[in-house]
Automatic annotation (TrEMBL):
Signal sequence extent: none
The name this protein goes by in its record: Immune-associated nucleotide-binding protein 10
Organism classification: Eukaryota, Metazoa, Chordata, Craniata, Vertebrata
GO MF annotations in UniProt: GTP binding
Domain spans labelled AIG1-type G: 58-216
Pfam family, one: AIG1
Species this chain originates from: Anabarilius grahami
Length: 540
């Protein structure tokens, strides 16, 4: 016999849904209207219903470790929006999972955007789900999630503002796992400081009691979020048993079971009501600052990677200069008598080589400067449209030496590397080289020293530019001590000391100390972060 819901208020939506499992409640999968499987995009979009521009619209971002119950929570939102009651004996789900996706698509579409535009709901809702955060594949995957969010905000159907960032946590936890700390740290580093008041905690698997231990864990981890009048974190409680059948055959008394499921239902729907009331009171936060944060992160990484190569060349030229000076000193008499002689020197040169696929698949390189402008980290911009690469600004590169037009760049599975070779030289050619540059009569040694000074000035400029990127991130990022900053801290500290900038070096050292003291730079993440650091530092 059909239930009231099947015959009445949910008849239309049930007709357009797929039955997952009959029972009490009967479980239905909502049928999406569109499913974006375009592999060139960095996100997947699923739409349920048609957007009504006259309805209030809210956008939320869901973040949480695998197993915390995010998908179940999204299902609770759907049923709350539809006005489903326990006695309706029906339950609607999206039942979407990363594992449902093709392997090819899941490599690029790390986040999923759900558009819930249900005729039966008084509001429209967009949910951005980040199921990849905290994946065991580590830091590289999480960077892709960041760039997926950036791509989404820039797209034609892009999201320009967010009403709430929801951190999903199991209410039974007495401490945040290392992985959770890493997830929340990564997310907070994406947002501007003004977003903290829109970040809330959603505790799942709750028994209705205040999750004191979980709240203590959140405070100890220094998670920034909205606070109530008592300066306590804003949180909402949810149980995860709404779709559990009331007539399962077990040893539990039927009346007791029904009472337990009813209480579970009421707790979760009460939590959802409070969450939606919170959404009404909060102004949305623009993603412009988030875009700025992400842009600065990418430029920081690209600048430091490019800096490494240019510093390496500087040091090789310093070595070449010393060898030349030693040859001039050894042949002082010949120099004085202006006689020719031969000597050897280690000289540097650039060569295009295949990329190590364990580090990256593609790189954006300047063919004029012969430099790697975006490597590693360049993975989604199509080769024929490089003006959209993160290191480009107003169609010109922000990284390479000459700041060349994007049309002078190529994107391939090759990079420039600096190599050395022993080369025989003559004093006659050395003199001619500098005579051609500035005319005769100038000391060769003096000119070489001047050239070295110019290289040192360039090195100082590049190191300070990279430090400026860190400073900018410190100013605009919600989590000012982010893992993105620490990935480059050791390298920058060393170079700042080399160019006699002890105060700036100390500032970065203090940032590292604060991070370690707050216990958010933990062992399980450090291995992954150190791997990235080593990729940048190489032989320096």
């Amino acid at each position: 016999m059909a239930s009231l819901s099947q015959e009445g208020k949910f008849a239309v939506i049930i007709k357009n849904s797929f039955l997952i499992e009959d029972g009490n409640p009967a479980r239905y999968r909502l049928q999406e209207k569109t499913d974006n499987t375009d592999q060139s995009k960095q996100y997947r979009k699923m739409t349920f219903g048609v957007r009504d521009r006259n309805k209030p619209h809210k956008t939320i971002l869901m973040v949480g470790e695998t197993g915390t119950g995010k998908t179940t929570l999204i299902n609770v939102m759907i049923n709350y929006m539809l006005g489903v009651q326990r006695n309706d004996k029906v339950w609607f789900e999206i039942t979407d999972d990363q594992s449902d996706r093709s392997s090819a698509h899941s490599q690029t579409s790390i986040i999923t955007v759900y558009g819930f535009y249900l005729q039966e709901s008084p509001i429209d809702l967009t949910v951005i789900d980040t199921p990849g955060y905290g994946d065991t594949r580590g830091v590289d995957l999480d960077k892709q999630i960041s760039m997926s969010l950036l791509s989404l905000s820039k797209s034609a159907e892009g999201i320009s503002e967010i009403h709430a960032v929801c951190l999903v946590i199991n209410a039974t936890q007495n401490r945040l796992s290392d992985r959770q700390r890493y997830i929340f740290d990564s997310v907070q580093s994406l947002f501007g400081k003004d977003t903290a008041e829109n970040i809330v905690l959603l505790f799942t698997h709750s028994d209705g009691a205040t999750p004191k231990k979980a709240l203590t864990a959140v405070k100890e981890a220094k998670v920034k979020c909205a606070e109530n009048d008592k300066k306590q974190p804003v949180y909402f409680l949810f149980n995860n048993c709404q779709s559990e059948a009331a007539d399962e055959d077990d040893n539990e008394d039927e009346e007791d079971r029904e009472q337990r499921l009813k209480q579970s239902w009421e707790k979760s729907f009460n939590g959802m009501m409070q969450l939606f009331e919170f959404l009404k009171t909060k102004d949305p936060k623009s993603l412009k600052m988030t875009r700025d944060v992400l842009q600065q992160q990418k430029q920081l990484e690209a600048n430091i990677s490019n800096l490494k190569a240019r510093v390496q060349i500087t040091e090789l030229k310093q070595n070449e200069l010393k060898q030349t000076q030693e040859a001039l000193e050894k042949n002082k008499k010949a120099v004085k008598e202006n006689k020719n002689f031969e000597y050897e020197a280690e000289v540097s040169y650039k060569k295009r080589v295949d990329i190590d696929t364990s580090v990256a698949y593609k790189a954006t390189c300047c063919t004029v400067c012969q430099e790697n402008c975006h490597y590693p980290g360049c993975w989604w911009v199509p080769w024929h449209n490089l003006k959209w690469c993160e290191v480009m600004k107003d169609e010109y590169c922000t990284v390479c030496t000459n700041k060349c037009h994007y049309s002078k760049h190529i994107k391939e599975a090759k990079i420039y590397v600096t190599k050395t070779k022993t080369e025989k030289r003559t004093y006659e050619n050395l003199k001619k080289k500098y005579d051609d540059k500035i005319g005769a009569g100038v000391s060769v040694v003096k000119k070489l020293e001047e050239e070295l000074q110019e290289l040192q000035k360039e090195k100082i400029k590049l190191v300070n530019e990279a430090f400026h990127c860190v400073e900018t991130l410190q100013m605009i990022a919600l989590n000012s001590v982010s893992l993105y900053t620490l990935q480059h801290a050791d390298f920058l500290i060393k170079k700042l000391k080399e160019i006699n900038e002890p105060q700036k070096a100390k500032k970065l050292e203090d940032i590292k100390k604060r991070k370690e003291k707050s216990a958010t730079f933990f062992d399980s993440t450090e291995v992954a972060v150190r791997t990235v650091i080593n990729q940048f530092m190489g032989g320096i």
